[in-house]
Structure to design on (763 residues):
């Protein structure tokens, strides 16, 4: 594969040649941030300016004024945000000085994200609320949600085969990580933790990692953490704008395209956005060869409409997520001897040629998401918000062994979820805010022919009280108290008769956060929380085969609810060239639920598979994380370290705990007057998991490995159109390795070298 290395070298040489012609050019941006209603200045508003690969951050002073100096470029993107207000953002000329006035309107949305906290601000990554801005469909369209979320400093990826993954935060995943769309939790993890979230990241503009005090305003779930997706509809004028995205990937010969149309009409207080995305890929490839039957097809679309008359706001959002995934045929074996040979050997036992066809076994997934938000002024000068939403999930799994008809699902799960909520918020003192909320949900789950989990109804009622206060220039306080009650009705066939049983769960949750900022460069944060989680339906009642994980799972009706007690201490330092953030965390979980593998492999009429039982134990999770960024001139070096340890019942190992990981990224960027260009090289080291219990592992943990990735991006601004190109290589050296966090690691190694190229057009 020398041609790939040569291509990268040629591009780097070309980039270096262009750099010889750079002019030293800088522009100044001055602005003022005001409240749109009262016209008063907003102090500590966060201002972020992006030109090419350069970014500058600052905050408004007591008069609402700010100033930024940044290198010239063809265009710049500027965003102004403030707690409780709708952000102002836009693209401007990057060749001349600017003098701007931003009039921010108070947010009427039900769930306004806390991006910048009260007190003496530093930079967005300092707080426990961490955020990344997705460049719409260009950064996220070619990967799934779990891969996109791994861009966040504290998030890693856990997978069940090459096509299925989910975010992992400090050793937690699945039902212990809440996934939210503008504060509304997705209803998608009650069927099992190996299923990927039905969420397409490119339809959203921001991805945030929420702290517990904020999370509890939206959901009682999230013992391990929460990720919130935010969308935006914005343009500088009333014209219709569009984005078009195209990409190719050599690994599975995947082609992808996406389109985004949006318009803002201030005259009519109306804004809308329509998006569509589709891709198709063939058989995935490892260094050993192709993985039989691992093609995929995706078709997603969404529509947003926002109407904002005076003192009111109405938001309508609809998204459909639809995917068809092949499951590696080598993970579904017909006899015990083949399964034992696959586990004991690190060779790829089932091989195939490349194909776009998706045969058996496979999954077909549909998720519809419809939500209506209404916000208005309320009594006592507060803000009142109402939300009504409907989610529909359908997952079909098609069997390899028992199939008589390839279009007849062996297992089908259908779940309809209705959510409603009412929230009131008000500024009660100077620099203090009170939030009150009442939330409810109704869930109905039905099965197809094979009963993996029983049919059930679930009703949920929750309420919360939240308070945040900037005590002075040194201290900030945020706290939330929450109560939830859950009632489940379960319908099971036993001895030929339909039996109905009931299960009830209820508990309090609480979180307290104290922030200390001795200076504009240094900050500390202490977080304490008590949270809980009822056992998921699959943990209680599952009986049978999970196709995606290629494993048999058996629930335990005696499981009790988990209760978590968490402590987190973090600190951050930020100056002109150096940014460092570090955290120590500890989480004690009573009645922690985990999968315990059976000693013997199981042979069924559907094939031979590992089998797991649900068990509980007292668990302790603790560890440390460090993130740093050093910038000098056009060079930027980013480092991150993650250490997670977990014990049960004293000093016993837990399975599927992420090993030590070190990531490094070196980025070189520059901007001419015409064409911003940059180069990035990334290294990731993942250690072997040396603390494990052989009785809890189907196969011994794999060895440590080093991965190298690289990318080059290039922009051209021409005739009101912005053209963005990117060429990248993942796993440059085509390393053959196994990931401990992949539940199917004993069937096949991870993917080999992947070369991709993408083009995005903005108008």
């Amino acid at each position: 594969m020398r041609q790939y290395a040569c291509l990268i070298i040629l591009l780097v040489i070309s980039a270096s040649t262009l750099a010889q012609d750079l002019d030293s050019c800088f522009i100044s941006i001055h602005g003022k941030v005001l409240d749109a209603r009262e016209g008063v200045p907003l102090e500590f508003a966060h201002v972020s300016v992006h030109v090419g690969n350069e970014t500058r951050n600052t905050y408004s002073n007591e008069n609402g004024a700010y100033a930024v100096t940044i290198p010239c470029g063809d265009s710049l993107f500027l965003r102004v945000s403030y707690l409780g207000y709708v952000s102002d953002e836009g693209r401007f000329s990057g060749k001349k000085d600017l003098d701007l006035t931003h009039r921010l309107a108070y947010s009427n949305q039900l769930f306004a994200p806390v991006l910048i906290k009260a007190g003496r601000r530093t930079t967005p990554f300092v707080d426990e609320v961490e955020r990344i801005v997705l460049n719409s469909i260009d950064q996220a369209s070619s990967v799934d949600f779990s891969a996109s979320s791994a861009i966040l400093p504290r998030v890693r990826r856990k997978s069940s085969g090459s096509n299925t993954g989910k975010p992992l935060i400090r050793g937690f995943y699945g039902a212990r990580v809440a996934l939210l769309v503008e504060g509304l939790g997705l209803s998608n993890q009650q069927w099992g933790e190996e299923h990927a979230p039905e969420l397409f990241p490119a339809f959203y503009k921001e991805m945030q990692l929420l702290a517990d005090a904020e999370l509890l305003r939206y959901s009682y779930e999230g013992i391990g953490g929460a990720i919130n997706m935010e969308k935006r509809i914005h343009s500088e004028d009333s014209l219709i704008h569009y984005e078009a995205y195209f990409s190719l990937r050599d690994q599975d010969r995947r082609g992808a395209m996406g389109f985004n149309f949006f318009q803002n009409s201030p005259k009519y207080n109306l804004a809308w956005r329509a998006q569509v995305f589709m891709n198709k890929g063939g058989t995935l490839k490892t260094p050993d060869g192709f993985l039989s039957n691992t093609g995929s097809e995706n078709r997603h679309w969404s529509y947003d409409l926002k109407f904002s008359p005076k003192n009111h706001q109405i938001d309508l959002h609809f998204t459909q997520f639809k995917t068809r995934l092949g499951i590696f045929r080598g993970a579904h074996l017909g006899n015990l001897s083949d399964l034992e040979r696959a586990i004991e050997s690190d060779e790829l036992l089932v091989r195939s040629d490349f194909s776009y066809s998706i045969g058996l076994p496979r999954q077909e997934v549909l998720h519809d998401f419809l939500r209506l938000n209404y916000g208005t002024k309320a009594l006592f000068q507060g803000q009142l918000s109402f939300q009504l939403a409907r989610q529909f999930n359908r997952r079909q799994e098609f069997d390899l062994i028992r199939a008589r008809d390839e279009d007849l699902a062996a297992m089908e799960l259908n779940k309809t979820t209705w959510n409603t909520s009412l929230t009131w918020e008000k500024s009660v003192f100077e620099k203090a805010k009170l939030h009150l909320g009442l939330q409810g949900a109704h869930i109905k789950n039905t099965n197809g022919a094979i009963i993996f989990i029983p049919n059930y109804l679930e009703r949920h009622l929750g309420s919360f009280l939240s308070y945040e206060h900037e005590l002075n220039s040194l201290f900030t306080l945020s706290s939330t108290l929450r109560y939830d009650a859950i009632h489940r009705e379960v319908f099971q066939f036993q001895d030929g008769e339909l039996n109905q049983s009931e299960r009830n769960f209820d508990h309090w949750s609480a979180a307290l956060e104290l922030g200390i900022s001795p200076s504009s460069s240094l900050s500390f944060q202490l977080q304490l929380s008590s949270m809980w989680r009822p056992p998921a339906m699959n943990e209680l009642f599952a009986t049978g085969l999970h196709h995606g994980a290629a494993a048999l799972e058996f629930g335990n009706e005696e499981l009790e609810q988990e209760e978590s007690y968490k402590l987190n201490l973090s600190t951050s330092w930020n100056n002109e060239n150096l940014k460092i953030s570090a955290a120590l965390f500890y989480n004690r979980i009573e009645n922690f639920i985990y999968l315990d593998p059976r000693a013997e492999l199981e042979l069924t009429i559907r094939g031979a598979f590992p089998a797991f039982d649900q068990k509980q134990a007292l668990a302790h999770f603790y560890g440390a994380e460090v993130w740093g960024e050093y910038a000098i001139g056009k060079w930027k070096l980013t480092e991150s370290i993650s250490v997670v340890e977990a014990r049960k019942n004293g000093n016993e190992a837990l399975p599927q705990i992420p090993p030590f990981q070190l990531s490094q990224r070196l980025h070189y960027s520059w901007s001419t007057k015409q064409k911003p260009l940059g180069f990035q090289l990334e290294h990731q080291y993942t250690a072997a998991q040396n603390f494990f219990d052989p009785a809890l592992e189907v196969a011994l943990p794999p060895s440590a490995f080093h991965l190298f990735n690289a990318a080059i991006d290039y922009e051209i601004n021409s005739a009101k159109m912005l053209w963005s190109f990117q060429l990248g290589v993942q796993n440059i050296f085509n390393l053959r390795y196994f990931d401990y966090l992949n539940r199917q690691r004993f069937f096949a190694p991870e993917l080999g070298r992947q070369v991709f190229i993408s083009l995005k057009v903005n108008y």
Remarks:
- Helices lie at 2-19, 137-140, 145-149, 212-215, 336-344, 537-541.
- Residues 2-106 form a domain with the Immunoglobulin-like fold (CATH 2.60.40.1120).
- The first strand starts at residue 26 and ends at 35.
- The CA atoms of residues 161 and 744 lie 5 Å apart.
